[in-house]
Each structure stands twice: as structure tokens, then as C-alpha cells.
Amino acid sequence: MLEKNYLNAYLSGEIHSDWRENIKQKVLSLKLPINFLSPVTNHSASDDCGVQILGEENKKFWHDYKGASINSIRTSNMIEKSSIVIVKFGEKYRQWNAAFDAGMAVTLGKSLITLHDESLDHALKEIDAASNAVCRTEEQVILTLKYVTS
Hints:
- The chain has a 5-stranded parallel beta sheet with strand order 2-1-3-4-5, with helices on both faces.
- It has a domain at about 5-40 and about 80-150: Rossmann fold, CATH 3.40.50.450.
- By secondary structure, the protein is an alpha/beta fold.
- It has helices at about 20-30, 45-55, 60-80, 95-105, 125-130, 140-150, and strands at about 5-15, 35, 85-90, 110-115, 135.
């Protein structure tokens, strides 16, 4: 249940670490007025939702297409409900979907915060140029959220 009069923040991107939980716990401890929304972070559940709901596919393309299509319903609705979109880019995998989410956020006029290591600066230069804050650490994200809600 989303609290009224709270900002909604969508947590997009890297799913192989606990960054979302770290941010949520810190925001909760600071009692910041923020609700969090996020994608399904169980990789196989996210990838397989389409065939689990709509039926099996013989070709991987159609398997992925069904999952991506259903996930896009969830993602687009959550981004539309959000005031802020926070996108974490990690080293291990290329998060093309996260880049898409960042573009959608900018297109919809949402505030965008990116979170990534300096080693990704060049690859993400266009996304960073469109973002409102480029953070290097979870703590910088927390401080940004604290500032904008005070």
C-alpha cells in the first residue's frame, strides 16, 4: 500500500546485489516520506512470466518477447506512478532494460537519479547528461533523497 503524500520512487536496474534493500532500510530509519516500487528482481521469475502466463514457446525469441511484454506493463505503470526513478548500473551485466527505464523516465518528465561506478561514465554519458543526479554510492542516493524531501 502506497502512503499518501509520500514521494514514489522506482528502483530500476541491477538485480544481483542488495542495493534496493539497503536504500529502503536507510530511508525507513530516517523516516523519509518515500514509497518504493521496483521490478521483479528474481531473474528467472521475471524472464519466465510470459510463458508461465501465456504458454510455452519453442523459440527463445518468443519466450523472451512474452516476458518482456508482460514486464513492460508492470514497469511502465510503476514509472508513471513515480516522482523519482533511481537506476543502478552494475559492472557484471549490461542492463539494457535499465537504460530503457531511464529513457522512459526522462520522456515522462520524472526526476532521474543514476547510481554507478566511475568506470561506466563513458558508456552512460548520455543517460547521465539527462539525469538530475549522478551518484557513486548508495549513501549519495540517500543524501539526495533526504535533501529533496526536507
